[in-house]
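Figure S7 source data.
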Amino acid sequence: MAYLPAELIKKKRESGELSEAEISFFINGYTRGDIPDYQMSALLMAIYFRGMSEAETLALTKCMLFSGKTVDFSSVPGFKVDKHSTGGVGDKTSLILGPIVAACGIAVPMISGRGLGHTGGTLDKLESIPGFNIHFSLEKFVQAIRDHKICFIGQTPEICPADRKIYALRDVTATVESLPLICASILSKKLAEGIDGLVLDVKFGSGAFMKTPEDAEKLARLLMDVARRYGKNVSALLTNMNQPLGRYAGNSLEVAECVDLLQNKRHPMTEDTRELSLQLSAQMLWLSGAAPSLEGAYSKCEESIRSGQAFKKFLELCRLHGGDLSGLPVPRKNLTVTADQDGFIQSFDTEGIGYAGIQLKAGRARTEDKIDPVSGIEFHKKVGDAVKKGETIFTLHGNDESLFAEAAKRLSTCVTYSLQKISAPVLIIKSLS
Ligand code: URA
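C-alpha cells for the predicted uracil complex:
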C-alpha cells in the first residue's frame, strides 16, 4: 500500500504507533531513493523524541535486516558467535577475543565497522597492519570461516543498505542517540551475519554513547529481547567507559597492545583490556556451549593465551588477510602532557580524549578524511591513581608534530584531580543473560 511520507511523519510526531507496513514503506522507499533525505530526517527526529514501541522496533529491525543480503553459513558446521561493542576509546577487544575464541574451536565471523564519532573502529585498527585487506566477498568470508574459524570484513554494499544510508543521515542530523534506532542499526547488521550467538559489550560513561548505566542497561535489554526474537543466544556485559580502555588509543598503537596481550605480556595499564577481553571471550565460549560454566570458559580462554594458541590464530588471521605484522608502523615523534598538580586522578573526559585522537588524525572528523595509522595517545594513569605535579598523564604519538599542540591543549582539559583518595572504578558492573 502507498502512503504519503508526510502523514507517517505526522503520525509519529503525534506519538502514534507505525505499523510494520508503514515502516517498511518508509524504509524501503528511502533506501531506493524514492523518499528524500529531508523526509527521512524528519521521521528520524520524530522517532528520536517519541520513541518506538517494541513492535515498531522489531519491525524496523526486520525491515533494515532484509533491505540486503544475509550471510548463509548453513554449509559451515558448528556454532558461530560474534561480539558487538557499542563503542569506546581504546576499545580494542575484538582483536584479542576473536583469536582467543577461534583458537578454542568456535567460529567468529565478524563484520566490523570503522571509527564513529569519537570512538575507534576495528577495521581502522586492522588496516594499520600493512597489506591487511578487509574487502572480502561474502562467498570468500564464508570460505574463510570454514577454513580458519575467523575472518574480519567491512560491511559490504549488500549487507543492510538501509542502515548504511540511514546511519550516515543520523550522524549529521543529531539522531544517533535513540534506543530503537541504535537497536535496529546494530542488530540488523549482526543478524545479517548469520551468527548463532552474540555477546554485547554495552558501554556507559563519558566515552560512551550511553552516558549512564541505566540507559546502557535499557539498551542492553532491548538488544537482547530483539535478538532473542530471532532465535539468537545472547548475553551482555555493562562496562565502564569513564576512562579509556588500556594503554593506547590509536590504530597501530592499539594493534601493538593487542599483540603484547596475545603474547601474554602484561603491563599495569593493559590489565583492563586483558580482563574485559577474557570476560567477553568467556561469554562467547559459554554461549556456544564449548564450556560447562562461565568459570570453565574463562580458564579455557586464559589457557589459549598462555599456550600461544591465540597468538598463533592472530598470525593466521593476518596471513589470511594479507597483513604483514612485522611491518606494523611505529610513530617517530612524541610529546608528553603532564599533571599540573599533586593528587589523585578523579575523572577523565573520555569523549574529549577521543576528539583529541581525531585532532591527531587517529580518527576521522569527516567520513572522507584519511586517518594516520601510527598516531594516537598513550595513557599513563587510571582513575584513582596518585599523581605528582609534572608526572606524565598522556603521551601523544605520531609522525606529524604540527598536530600535537592543539591535541595536547585539549588533553590537558580532559583530566580532573582530587586531593582525596579516589577508589578505582569497577570495569564490568553487570552481566545480563
Ligand atoms: N553502532 C551502530 O552500528 N549503530 C548505532 O546506531 C550506534 C552504534
